[in-house]
Amino acid sequence: MIAPPSTPHDTNGRSWIAVASAEHVRLGRAGGFMQVCHGKAAPLRRIRPGDRVAYYSPSAIFRGKDRLQAFTAIGVVRAGEPYRFDMGGGFLPFRRDVDWLTAAEAPIQPLLATLDFTGGVRNWGYQLRFGLFAITDHDWHLIAGAMRASLPA
User: Fold this and answer.
1) Which Gene3D superfamilies match (predicted)?
2) β-strand 70-77 against 94-100: which pairing, if any?
3) Position 87 in a domain
4) Residues 81-87: contacts with CB under 8 Å, at least 24 apart
5) What is the tens place of the pLDDT at every residue in 65-96?
6) pLDDT at position 33, please?
7) Which of 82, 102, 127, 145 could be a cystine partner for 150, CB 3.0 to 4.6 Å?
8) What is the pLDDT of residues 13-57, one digit of tens each?
9) 108 or 9, higher pLDDT
10) Distance, first Cα to last Cα, the chain
11) Are 20 and 59 in contact (CB under 8 A)?
12) Is 115 a member of any domain?
C-alpha cells in the first residue's frame, strides 16, 4: 500500500464510494489512480481534488462469483482532471489520480447497521450498482476507522 499523502488536502471535500472488484482496485492502488464505471469520464468529473473515496469490492475477481463484500481501498483525490489511459486493445478508460492511504481491507457486514447509506435499508446493495455515489462524512469516517486508515493531517 502507498503511504499517506505528504501534502495537505482540502478537508471540505465530498466523500464517495466507488465500486470495483478487489483485483481492479489493487491495480489502481499500485498505479495511484481510480477508474469507475468501466472507464467512463462522466462519473469521474463529479469528483474534485481533495474529495475522499473508499472502494467497495463485491468480489475479489472481476465478474467473480465469490462474495468478498469489503472495502478494499481508501484515499484522497489528487489535483488534476480525469484523463484517458491507453490500456491496449483499443480500450481507453478515464482515470483520476489518488493518494491511497495505508489501510486494511474491511468487510461491510459489521458496518451495515451504522452506515447512513445502509442503515435500516433491507436492499442496501442497490446503490452499489451505480458504481459511484456520494456518501456522508459520517460514513467515510466509519469506513476509514474500520479499515484502520492512516488519515492525512
Assistant:
1) ph1033 like domains
2) antiparallel
3) yes
4) 81/45, 82/41, 82/44, 82/45, 85/33, 85/35
5) 788 999 999 999 999 999 999 988 889 999 99
6) 97
7) 102
8) 899 999 999 999 999 999 999 999 989 999 999 999 999 999 999
9) 108
10) 18
11) no
12) yes
Residue 67 lies in a domain: yes
Contact between residue 21 and residue 72 where contact means Cβ atoms under 8 Å apart: no
Distance CA 90, CA 59 (A): 26
Q: How far apart are CA 34 and CA 39, in angstroms?
A: 9
- Has residue 2 been placed in a domain? no
Cell of 27: 491495480
Q: How many domains does the chain have?
A: 1
- State which amino acid sits at residue 152: P
Q: Cell digits for 113? A: 447497521
Q: Give tens-digit pLDDT for 119-144.
A: 878 888 888 888 999 999 999 999 99
Cα gap 40→72, rounded to integer Å: 21
Which letter does DSSP use for residue 39 in this model?
A: G
